[in-house]
Design goal:
The protein has 6 helices and 5 strands; from the N terminus they run βββββαααααα. By secondary structure, it is an alpha+beta fold. The longest helix is centred in the last third of the chain and has 17 residues. The radius of gyration is 18 Å and the shape is elongated. The protein starts with a strand and ends in a 12-residue tail after the last helix.
Length: 211
């Protein structure tokens, strides 16, 4: 087993036995990985094993060449986006993004664009940007990275929605995150992104009811 070190964002976690977690991360260098983190729970949890949502982590893991569950030896937060938890709209949007990234990717699928979309979404949600706009931006960037986005010209949109979608497509995260969508434009864009997402899933998203 090779020892690997990378930046990662936690997608899912569940308890395993008395002191461990089974974790799913989307990593910068290896895509999605599943792993067991031992000693992270209980009376005396390890100081270098603290998996939390909405943070940029550094993880060290033993990569299994045949796939399957890896052994995670370290998980330490490098940046924590605590402001996401201060407002329900931002919290629910962030959980929705984690679920989208999870259901649309397979273990071992590497994509720096997917990783960057998660990381930048959390950064800008944490900085106080409007949750609806960041969510629409994330959807478009994610669908583009996955090859599922047909382009703004494919849709019949109002002038305001078309301009916003084209801005999201072409601009950097820093520039695009400054755009504020009106309620009507947000709803219009959500209609087209939601339809593409629904058409490419075999089950409803668990987090969609919170949005």
């Amino acid at each position: 087993m090779a020892i690997q070190k990378t930046e990662a964002i936690l997608l899912k976690k569940k308890d395993f036995r008395e002191t461990s977690f089974i974790l799913t991360f989307f990593t910068k260098d290896f895509g999605k990985i599943d792993g067991i983190l031992k000693g992270a729970r209980g009376v005396r949890p390890r100081s270098d094993a603290n998996p939390i949502f909405f943070s940029l982590d550094q993880v060290v893991f033993y990569e299994k060449k045949t796939g399957g569950i890896s052994i995670i030896s370290q998980c330490e937060a490098q940046e924590v986006f605590l402001n996401i938890l201060k407002e329900w709209a931002r919290t629910s949007s962030a959980y929705y993004m984690l679920e989208l990234a999870d259901v649309f990717t397979e273990a071992g699928d590497k994509s720096e664009d997917v990783f960057d979309s998660l990381y930048n979404s959390f950064r800008f949600l944490d900085s106080g940007k409007e949750a609806g706009s960041i969510t629409r931006l994330f959807e478009i960037k994610l669908l583009t990275a996955l090859g599922l986005w047909p382009g703004a010209e494919y849709f019949k949109l109002t002038k305001g929605a078309m301009s916003s979608v084209m801005h999201f497509e072409k601009e950097s995260w820093k520039s695009a995150s400054n755009m504020k969508l009106t309620k009507d434009v947000n709803k219009e864009i959500q209609g087209i992104t939601g339809k593409i997402i629904e058409e490419n899933l075999d089950r409803p998203l668990k987090t969609i009811r919170f949005l």
